[in-house]
Amino acid sequence: MRHAAAVVILAAAVAGAAPAHGTAAEQQTVTLTTRDGVLLTGTLYLPARTPAPGVVLLHMATRSRQDWEATGLAFAREGLAALAIDFRRSGTAPVGPDGTVPASGGFSDLVIDAEAARGYLAARPEVVATRLGMAGASLGANVAVLAASNDPSIRSLALLSASLDYRGLRIEQAITRYGGRPALLVASSEDPFALRTARTLVSAGEGARELRVLSEAGHGTVMIDRHPELIDALVDWFSRTLL
């Protein structure tokens, strides 16, 4: 039986009631290897008190893990571990043999990167392996859904500006396979495709779903830059769904 609840929160009301741990955060640069042999770089954010729940952070296309730095530090201050990785093509788009970006496909191997990040985070002694979440922005949001749909250890998702189909990464069926686990969907009011996707996904699957709509916030992690209070909402979301 469905128990999902769609909650629309406009710009000024986006901040959640984040827990006030106020603990110091530790930040480490780490490396990890995917199952197909690709070496990835990440930043690990650890709270003062461990073991703690952990969240994987996945960036937008042509961007890097640095977009998540303020979020990762906030997570660690509030009692959550976080790992932000650079995808294997961080800062670039996939280029075909003719020098052009493929119109579709070309991103499926990034799901392997997300799987490796989840495995690395779960293996850290500072992290509770049974309390893992994943957050992604734009391309990273689609990768997060696809990774979580086949991995029951990922207990919660936060998706910023997801797309039903990001160059072949289709997620409507994947969010249904994700099933009864909770998902937070965030989109900006002037970003029509992301907003339409969020409204579609909030009704998909059988788990708790929350929708947050920001005003004139941009796309993906740009929303964090324009609305820093979104970080508090993400802390609140994972505190509620992982702690």
Please give a handful of descriptors for the protein shown.
about 240 residues, 8-stranded mixed beta sheet, alpha/beta, single chain, Rossmann fold
Report the top-level CATH class: Alpha Beta
Please, what is the oligomeric state? single chain
- What percent strand? 25-35%
First-last Cα distance? 24 Å
Major sheet: size, sense and barrel closure? 8 strands, mixed
Topology, please?
Elements: E1 25-33, E2 39-47, E3 52-58, H1 69-77, E4 81-85, H2 110-123, E5 127-137, H3 139-149, E6 154-160, E7 165-166, E8 169-170, H4 172-178, E9 183-188, H5 192-201, E10 209-214, H6 222-226, H7 229-242
Parallel strand pairs: 3-4, 3-5, 5-6, 6-9, 9-10
Antiparallel strand pairs: 1-2, 2-4, 7-8
Characterization of this structure:
This protein has one domain: Rossmann fold. Helix content is 29%, strand content 26%. It has seven helices and ten strands. The strands form two sheets. It has an eight-stranded mixed β-sheet with strand order 1-2-4-3-5-6-9-10, sandwiched between helices. The protein has a two-stranded antiparallel ribbon with strand order 7-8. Helix 5 (192-201) links the parallel strand 9 (183-188) and strand 10. The radius of gyration is 16 Å and the shape is globular.
Describe this structure in a few short sentences:
The protein is of the alpha/beta class. It has seven helices and ten strands. The longest helix has 14 residues, at 110-123.
